[in-house]
Every structure is written in C-alpha cells, then in structure tokens.
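the two lines:
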Amino acid sequence: GAGVSQTPSNKVTEKGKYVELRCDPISGHTALYWYRQSLGQGPEFLIYFQGTGAADDSGLPNDRFFAVRPEGSVSTLKIQRTERGDSAVYLCASTTGTGKNEQFFGPGTRLTVL
Amino acid sequence: SQKIEQNSEALNIQEGKTATLTCNYTNYSPAYLQWYRQDPGRGPVFLLLIRENEKEKRKERLKVTFDTTLKQSLFHITASQPADSATYLCALSLSGSARQLTFGSGTQLTVLP
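prediction for all of em together
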C-alpha cells in the first residue's frame, strides 16, 4: 500500500511570501503529526491531529504557522510571511491513532526561504 | 531543562563488527522509547520500540536496551553491513502526552567494507 506522501518535495520561496505544504497520510490512519527538521538535528514536533481536530499545537513556533485537516485525512501546513529561519525540511507522519505505535513518516518537503 | 543526547560524533566501524549507539536523556520520564533510521533525503523509518518496563528488545540483528535508572538506551547492530550506514535517531514519548515524539539529534553511522 501507499505510504505517507508529501507535496511538493521542494519549495523555494521569497521572504515574506505565503506557502502551503501538503501531507497525504496512510489511508485509515487517524493520527497525523507535523515535524520540522533542520540540518544536523532530529525532527522537532509542531502539531498533532487526531481526526479533524488539532489535539496538540504546542510545537508551532508562532502564529505565522497554522495547519488544518478538514476531513480527517489530508493535512495542509500553512506558513505566512515566511522568514529565512523557516527554511528546513517539514516532515509529516501518521499512525493508527492508538498512540503507542510506530510513526510512519513521509519523505518531507524541503522549504527554502530566500 | 529536558534534553536528549546521542553520540555526539559520527561513528565509523568495520563491516562485521557490532555498532553500539547511545541515547541519554535528562529530566524526562518517558513511557517508551523508539529508534528510527534516516537516510539522506528521506523521512525516518521506524526500527524498534521499547517500553519503560522492558529491559531489552530484539529484532533480527538489532537490539535495544532501556535503563530508566541510568536514563539511557543503547542500540546495537550486530554483524554490521555497509547497507546499515545511515543516521539513527532515538525518540522519546512521554506518558500522558499527545504521543508526540521528542527526538535526539541522531548519530551518523558509517560501516566500512
């Protein structure tokens, strides 16, 4: 079966622009996570969805970051007024939702803010 | 403050030897700990999970130990192969949390033929 997919694989934008990153989780997975990974670092938690609702958004760095999952499947991470410091790989992961299982990660979107 | 530390330097070993990677944490009481493998340009891939009440877990050539007194996990790859070369990440999940994972920065392992 298909794994977690993310689009685009690469995104280059200019400082101040708005970007949207998309995640398609594994079919049937109710839990979805967004992480951000900087070079040489491990993934850093951003937000967690259980179904359609954001169960924990404590990792979002500021109010320029927002994520939605309107139908409980596909999720979009939205970044307003991008800054150079937002440049990183944004990873999406999904699980069956019981919480203690492995997380299945997508390949990530590499965001570069010029 | 809470901290997770993995081997701070890249680890090079000879093919056939056992690789041992370390994950130390402070100021956490994790419910369980996971190890992931990450190849360049790819997302992490799950390898093993060990719970707080388990001492050791094995899967094929992989072994993980978890010592909650020392606040340390060791990850072993026996009979290492060049194909095992990758970055290995440990990740903690806290009891009662939203099940988010808190990752270490990873250890880059190179197995030399």
